[in-house]
Each structure stands twice: as C-alpha cells, then as structure tokens.
C-alpha cells in the first residue's frame, strides 16, 4: 500500500528524485488550500524553500504566492476550519458542569487556534480553542 502511494506520488512529481525547491505553478491567493496541481519543482535548490511537495499539500497560504516563486514553510499554515462571523457551537466543561450554546466567531481559526467568540445569547466575548469537530471550546479559568 505504501509502495503504491509512493509510486503514485513520484508519477505526479517526476522531478522529486532530483534535488530542487517547491515553487508555485500558478498564482496562489492568500488563504488558498494547496493541491498537487498548485505546485511544481524547480531545478535549483533555494535556501529556506520546501523540497518535498507533500509537506505543502493540504495547507493554506498565509500570503499571495506568485508563479515560479519558491514556497517556504513560513508561507503556509493549517487550513482554517472556522471563518470570521461564522456561527459555531460553543462548549464549556468543568468537572460535571457542561454548557453548550451558539456563538459567532470573531476571528478565523484552524484546529487548535484560540479565537474570540461572542455568545449570541449574552453578547459576551470569550476566548475559545477550535476543536477538530469545529466546536469552540471555552477554557475554564
């Protein structure tokens, strides 16, 4: 299974066997989730640039990246699962006390990020960590 995945990957990136840097194949706007077709391999190795395209696939660009421009790890971040102004479930748990309600995200956030969320009912703004399930988990003090 691993051999099949590796051979498919090498077919998609034949230049992977040679040393080179990962570059943008087209203009990538900020907050674009990277796919295989967005990347190419340059013949030159640029200091600080990624050398493995699989390290970029599935991540989101932090800024605009133009064609033929090298892509570094600092240009990428985990994709946001919560957008600004999106309605999100909020959860608070402390011992046996469990509260769930609805809130509005005041920031964008990826899994594990702490963002501001406004409780729709009380209009109170709280800080919450985004879970993999898209729930904003309010931290007990």
Mean pLDDT: 88
State the low-pLDDT regions, or none. 1-10, 13-17
CA radius of gyration is 20 Å
Task: Please report which band the strand proportion falls in: under 5%, 5-15%, 15-25%, 25-35%, 35-45% or over 45%.
Answer: 25-35%
Q: What's the total number of strands? A: 11
Distance between the termini: 47 Å
- Can you summarize the main beta sheet? 5 strands, mixed, barrel
Structure description:
This protein is mainly β. The protein has one helix spanning 2-12; strands at 21-24, 39-42, 60-61, 76-77, 80-82, 87-94, 97-105, 109-110, 114-119, 125-130, 136-138. It has one helix and eleven strands, in the order H-E-E-E-E-E-E-E-E-E-E-E. The strands form four sheets. A five-stranded mixed barrel has the order 6-7-9-10-11. Strands 1-2 form a two-stranded antiparallel ribbon. A hairpin with a 5-residue loop joins strand 10 (125-130) and strand 11. It is elongated.
Question: What attributes does this structure have?
Answer:
141 residues; mainly beta; five-stranded mixed β-barrel; two-stranded antiparallel ribbon; disordered N terminus
In summary, what is this structure?
With 141 residues, the protein is mainly beta.
């Amino acid at each position: 299974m691993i051999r099949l995945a590796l051979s498919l990957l090498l077919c998609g990136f034949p230049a992977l066997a040679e040393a080179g840097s990962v570059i943008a194949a087209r203009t990538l706007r900020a907050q674009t989730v990277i796919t295989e077709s967005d990347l190419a391999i340059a013949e030159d190795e640029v200091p600080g640039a990624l050398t493995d395209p699989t390290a970029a696939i599935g991540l989101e660009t932090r800024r605009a990246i133009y064609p033929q421009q090298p892509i570094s790890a600092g240009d990428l971040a985990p994709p946001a699962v919560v957008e600004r102004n999106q309605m999100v479930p909020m959860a608070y748990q402390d011992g046996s006390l469990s509260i769930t309600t609805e809130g509005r995200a005041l920031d964008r956030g990826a899994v594990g990020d702490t963002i501001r969320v406004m409780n729709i009912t009380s209009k109170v703004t709280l800080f919450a960590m985004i879970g993999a399930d898209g729930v904003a988990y309010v931290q007990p003090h």
